[in-house]
Amino acid sequence: METRIYTLVRGDDWRAAERLGEYRGSADDTRDGFLHFSTAVQVRESAAKHRRGEPDLWLVEADTARLGDALKWEPASGGKRPGLFPHLYGPLPVAAVLSATRLTLRDDGTHEFPAGF
Question: What is the pTM of this model?
Answer without folding.
Answer: 0.94
